[in-house]
């Protein structure tokens, strides 16, 4: 007679806990909201959420479409990867452009070279109204910026798309309230409790593909205002600036006019994880120029409808 051996459970890693929480949040959104959408830019954070959605809902289709608010000034490598990934998953991708809002006159730039990044709020609110979305799932994390650290997992927005940091719902014991009246909206952030390091470790563990600009590569740049600025058709070198070929990569990706790379030799995910562990500069601290030069704080932009 053989003795049955007790089942030994392996302890969950911190990534397992974060993944489990995020999947739970995604399912809560699907269960509580009638018409949600997942904001997908092709960037590293939204790619993690895509994998989480696969684990939450496959083999069925996602219970929401994907949507990208395109400034018209995004890096082509990221746009190509966005389209490729959506096609591989067989999921519907909705693209709405700030340029369309400009044609309608709902977005007016102060100068032709003004960053369009903050104007995404207008296009997003127009898309929410067009499709009647009651929840937008995004890849924001608390460690990105101090205004994001104030926000709940389920962030309530009123009928004007505004966020009021003083009017947020409690989330005791991980109970999430996604109820809203017609015209109101919820922004859900499944990876809010993740850090930049968690994201890269998850990408490494799940062997996720990425746009090439996240890895170190040679790119023409100029030094401008203490930041590294890529030289492109949209951001040409100014008179007197020296164009240098430099080995760089991008830690975060947004509108070309406000997204700066960092000097790096990290050309694999393992090297990026190591580099992230040793850096003393925050992800947005030296790479998102709109955070440093914008006349509106992130908190103010969120009050106006920003992600």
Query: Average pLDDT, to the nearest integer?
Result: 88
From the alpha carbons, calculate the radius of gyration and give it in angstroms: 20 Å
Residue stretches low in confidence (pLDDT < 50, at least 5 long) are none
From the 3D structure, determine the CATH topology of the largest domain.
Rossmann fold
How far apart lie the N and C ends? 63 Å
**How many distinct beta strands?**
10
Kindly provide the name of the CATH class of the largest domain. Answer: Alpha Beta
Strand content: 5-15%
| Structural class computed from helices and strand pairing | alpha/beta
Provide the domain count. 2
Strand order of the largest sheet: 3-2-1-4-6-5
Give the ordered list of helices and strands.
HEHEHEHHEHEEHEEEEHHH
Taken from the alpha-carbon principal axes, the silhouette is: globular
Largest sheet: 6 strands, mixed
CATH architecture of the largest domain: 3-Layer(aba) Sandwich
Q: Determine the fraction of residues in helical runs and give it as a percent range.
A: 25-40%
């Amino acid at each position: 007679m053989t003795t049955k051996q007790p089942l030994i459970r392996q302890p969950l890693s911190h990534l397992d806990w974060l993944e489990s929480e995020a999947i739970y949040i995604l399912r809560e959104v699907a269960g509580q909201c009638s018409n949600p959408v997942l904001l997908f830019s092709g960037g590293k954070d939204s790619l993690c959420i895509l994998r989480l959605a696969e684990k939450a809902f496959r083999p069925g289709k996602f219970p929401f479409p994907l949507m990208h608010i395109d400034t018209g000034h995004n890096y082509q490598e990221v746009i190509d990867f966005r389209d490729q990934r959506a096609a591989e998953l067989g999921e519907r991708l909705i693209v709405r452009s700030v340029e369309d809002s400009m044609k309608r006159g709902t977005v007016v730039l102060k100068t032709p070279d003004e960053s369009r990044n903050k104007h995404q709020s207008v296009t997003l609110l127009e898309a929410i109204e067009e499709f009647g979305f009651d929840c937008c799932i995004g890849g924001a994390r608390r460690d990105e910026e101090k205004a994001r650290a104030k926000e709940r997992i389920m962030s309530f927005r009123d009928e004007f798309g505004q966020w009021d940091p003083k009017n947020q719902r409690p989330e005791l014991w991980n109970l999430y309230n996604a109820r809203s009246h017609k015209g109101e909206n919820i922004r859900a952030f499944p990876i809010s409790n993740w850090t930049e390091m968690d994201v890269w470790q998850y990408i490494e563990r799940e062997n996720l593909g990425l746009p090439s600009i996240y890895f170190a590569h040679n790119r023409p740049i100029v030094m401008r205002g203490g930041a590294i600025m890529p030289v492109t058709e949209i951001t040409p070198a100014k008179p007197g600036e020296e164009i240098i070929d430099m080995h760089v990569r991008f830690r975060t990706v947004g509108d070309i006019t406000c997204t700066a790379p960092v000097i790096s030799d990290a050309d694999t995910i393992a090297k990026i994880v190591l580099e992230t562990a040793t850096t003393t500069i925050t992800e947005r601290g030296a790479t998102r120029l709109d955070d440093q030069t914008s006349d509106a704080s992130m908190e103010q932009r969120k009050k106006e409808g920003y992600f």
